[in-house]
Amino acid sequence: MQRHRLSAAVRGHLGAAPRGRDVHLRGSRDRQSLSEVARLDTLVTVVDAQRFLSDWTSADDLRARKAALDEGDERTVAELLVEQVEFANALVINKTDLVGEDEVERLTAMLRHLNPGARIVRACRGQVEPREILGTGRFDFEEAARSPGWMRELRGEHVPETEEYGIESFVYRAERPMHPERLWDFIHGAAARDGVLRSKGVFWLATRTDITAEWSQAGGAASFEAAGRWYAALPEDQRPEDEEERAALDAAWHPVWGDRRQEIVFIGVDVAREELTRGLDACPLTQEEMVAGPSGWRPFEDPFPAWQEAGEQESEAEPAQPLLP
After folding, report:
1. pLDDT grade, residue 185 (50/70/90)?
2. Quick one: pLDDT at residue 7?
């Protein structure tokens, strides 16, 4: 049986989704699905206006907060928050009476950039008009999966800057592979973190030429992992057959390197965009380094941890899908 893996785009689309689309009723002998007896009308996330920003920038994991699903749940508080905020189609900002109006407006602007498609409702002491969250008929799984602000930015659906609060989003793109040591140093420097609320995308390491790397950061938590293979590293018959997907792939195709690329969305508050871009621009290989080719890049110092998936992908990896609307 073929083993499937989630590629960068697929994980990006579904990583924030509930853990499994089919939820089964406890005690049901025939494993009756919840969807057979109920429908998901609205997916609501309640945001604590007092604690959201401190939790978002926290590096605490859920186990430390006694909120983990089990011992194997290694997610951080920030990772849980981003899952809940990006996939919801209704966001309720609660405890607005305990913070200033300016703080509520700033938080609203942040949430709008993180999830432009969500309806935002303000509340005090959890009091919300029922019609705002019940019987709305607005939840759509596929639409929710396409709703995160970083994904819309990649599709060219730019969310206008909220100048009053210094909130903006932009996409960093580059064609050359990243030098692993320079990128590692950049990631651990201040420029990569200061003011950045969320960053997400794919990147290409010179020392791991065929592997699509996924970049995912939310507040104080970040991960950089293998997420599949570039289509350029796979046989022609494994490329998409869907016309829309193929068109998107062809549009991004480099004559030498195929779909390998750097494509990362940054969403932040008062981000030093020029400094951030300069730092990233120093990471790809120079023209002189490019001449050596893949065989000459392998000896480069690579401080990134070994990716478990990468070792298995030599024969079974699924390709990274193009990021489509």
Report:
1. very high
2. 31
pLDDT level of residue 324 (50, 70, 90 thresholds): very low
Strands (E) across the chain are located at 44-48, 90-94, 119-122, 167-174, 196-203, 211-218, 221-229, 262-269
CB 117 within 8 A of CB 139: no
Q: What is the mean pLDDT of the chain?
A: 82
Q: Is the dihedral of CA 33, 38, 43, 48 positive or negative?
A: negative
- Res. 195: pLDDT tops 60: yes
Q: What is the pLDDT of residue 278?
A: 95
CA dihedral 259, 246, 5, 3 (to 10 degrees): -120
Amino acid identity for residue 135 in this structure:
G
Nearest residue to 240 via CA among 7, 40, 69: 7
Give the span between the Cα atoms of 114 and 32, in whole angstroms. 35
Q: pTM of the full predicted structure?
A: 0.78
Contacts of 115 (CB under 8 A, 6+ apart): 85, 86, 88, 91, 147, 148, 149
* Strand partners of residue 173: 263
List, by residue range, all CATH 3.30.1220.10 domains of the chain.
Answer: 163-316
Q: Which CATH class is domain 163-316?
A: alpha beta
DSSP 59-114: --BTTTTT--SSTT---BHHHHHHHHHHH-SEEEEE-GGGS-HHHHHHHHHHHHHH
Number of residues that make up the chain: 325
